[in-house]
Amino acid sequence: xxxxxxxxxxxxxxxxxxxxxxxxxxxxxxxxxxxxxxxxxxxxxxxxxxxxxxxxxxxxxxxxxxxxxxxxxxxxxxxxxxxxxxxxxxxxxxxxxxxxxxxxxxxxxxxxxxxxxxxxxxxxxxxxxxxxxxxxxxxxxxxxxxxxxxxxxxxxxxxxxxxxxxxxxxxxxxxxxxxxxxxxxxxxxxxxxxxxxxxxxxxxxxxxxxxxxxxxxxxxxxxxxxxxxxxxxxxxxxxxxxxxxxxxxxxxxxxxxxxxxxxxxxxxxxxxxxxxxxxxx
Amino acid sequence: xxxxxxxxxxxxxxxxxxxxxxxxxxxxxxxxxxxxxxxxxxxxxxxxxxxxxxxxxxxxxxxxxxxxxxxxxxxxxxxxxxxxxxxxxxxxxxxxxxxxxxxxxxxxxxxxxxxxxxxxxxxxxxxxxxxxxxxxxxxxxxxxxxxxxxxxxxxxxxxxxxxxxxxxxxxxxxxxxxxxxxxxxxxxxxxxxxxxxxxxxxxxxxxxxxxxxxxxxxxxxxxxxxxxxxxxxxxxxxxxxxxxxxxxxxxxxxxxxxxxxxxxxxxxxxxxxxxxxxxxx
Lengths: 281, 281
Fold this sequence. Notes:
The structure is a homodimer. Chain A is an alpha/beta fold. Chain A folds into two domains: about 1-170, NAD(P)-binding Rossmann-like Domain (Rossmann fold); about 175-280, 6-phosphogluconate dehydrogenase C-terminal like domain (6-phosphogluconate dehydrogenase C-terminal fold, Orthogonal Bundle), CATH 1.10.3660. Chain A has helices at about 10-20, 35-45, 70-80, 95-100, 150-160, 170-200, 200-210, 210-215, 225-235, 235-255, 260-270, 275-280, and strands spanning about 1-5, 25-30, 50, 60-65, 85-90, 110-115, 135-140, 165-170. In chain A, helix 6 (about 170-200) packs across helix 10 (about 235-255). Chain A starts with a strand and ends with a helix. At the A-B interface, helix 6, helix 7, helix 8, helix 9 and helix 10 of A face helix 6, helix 7, helix 8, helix 9 and helix 10 of B.
C-alpha cells in the first residue's frame, strides 16, 4: 500500500509508525512545508521517500495531518491530482469548517473527515510514537459523503489499528470536542499562565509542583501552532464552554468565601462521578 | 522505632509502607475515627496494632494524617499524653491555621508542621502505595519552634525517605500552595463539573475522552472530605488565585472571539515555558 502523509508531526509521524504493523508492505511517502521536518522524518525512518504534490496520484491513501488552518487550499492541491482510487483523510480536531469547505467539491467522495482522539503534549517528527492510535476512539463525520469503496478501505485501516470508530455529524462533533477536549487545553494553558505570573521566582514552581499540578498543567506544553487555529475554528462552541467553566469557578469561589462546606462537599462529591464515567472506558 | 499514625488513609497508610524500608524495625500503631478503616489498615498490613490515644505516650513518632479540619482538638489530645521524646508531625496541605492554633501551646516544641507535596487522586487505606513519599518535596514550617533533638529526628526520617526538604513560613506556604496545588484541584473539579453538566449523555464523555481530558480532570476524582476543608482553610489565598485564573480565562475567550491569532499564539507560546520549568525537576 502506498501511503502519502502531508505533515510529519506527532499525528502524521505516529500514523507512519502505526500503519506498518498491520500493513508491513506499506511504503510511506512524505510532504511537509518544513524541509527540516521532512529531512528529520526521513532520518527517523518515519517515511521512506520525500515526494511532491504531483506524485500524490500514485497513492492508495493520503493522510493530511497539518494544523487545522493549513488544510484549506492544501486539500484542493491534493484532490486536484488524485484519481478515483485514492482515499484522502484528515485527523483535525475541528470538523465543521473542513466539511463545509468541501461540501460542493467535485472530489468530495475521495475525502473522509476523521478525528482520532489521540495525541500527546509533544510536537514535531521526534514526537512520533508507536501505538499512538491503538485503542483510541476515532470520530468519522459525514461518512455517507465518502465513496463506498474508499470508506470501506478507511474502516479496514482504522480497524487494523484497533481504533474504536464512532460516527457523528460535524456540528455535534465540534460541540462535544469543545467540552471534552478543547476546554481541557484552555483550562490547562490558563492554569500554567496564572501560576507562572504569580510565581515570578520559577524555583517555587518546580520545588512545589506535585504530581497533581503536573498532570493538570500537562496540556499547557502543547504546540501553540496546533492549538491556536483549533481554538479559533471552534470559537463559538469554545467561548460558550469557557463561559460555563467560568460560571462554575465563580460559584465554587463564592461557596469557599461563604464557607459553605455542605454545598462545597456536595459539588465535589457529585463531580467525583467522573471516576465511574471514565472507568467505563 | 514505635510509630503512631492517626488517620490511615492515602497519606498515613503510604507513610506506614514507606517508613518500613529505611527503618525495618519500625512497629506501626494505628488510630482512626473509622473503625472500618482501622480494621482495613490492619488487614492490609499497614499497621501492626490498633491503639488508643492513651497509648501514644509510648511512641517515638506520631504522624497526624487526617483531613485538615479534624486536626484541631485532636492535636490537643495527642500533645496531652506525649512526653518530651515524642515527635508529632502533620502532613496537612494548609499550614497557617495549625501553626496559629498551636502558637502558645505548652507542648508546641513536640510538634513539627510539615507538608509533603505527595498524593494521588485516591483515598482510604486501600489507596496506600509504596514510594508515595520517595523523592518528593517536603515543606517544613516554623522549624525553629520544634525541639532541636526532635527536629533532627524528623530530618533523619525525611532524608531516609529521600524527600527534598525545604523551609517556608506558614503564610508564604499557604499562598504558594494556593496556586501550585489548590488551584489545580479547583480547576480540575470545575472542568469535570462543566463537562458532566453539558454531556447529559455520559456515554459521550467516555467515548470522546482522550488522554488529555483524562489527565486534566484526574484531580476531580479526589476526596471531597480531604479537599473541602483545605479549600476553606485557604479561602483568602485561593479566592484570589481563582480570580486571577478567571481573569486569564476571560482574556483568552476574548482573544478567541476577536480571532486575535497573533496574541493567542504569543500567550500559548509563553505558557509553554512550563515545560522547561517542570523539566528542571
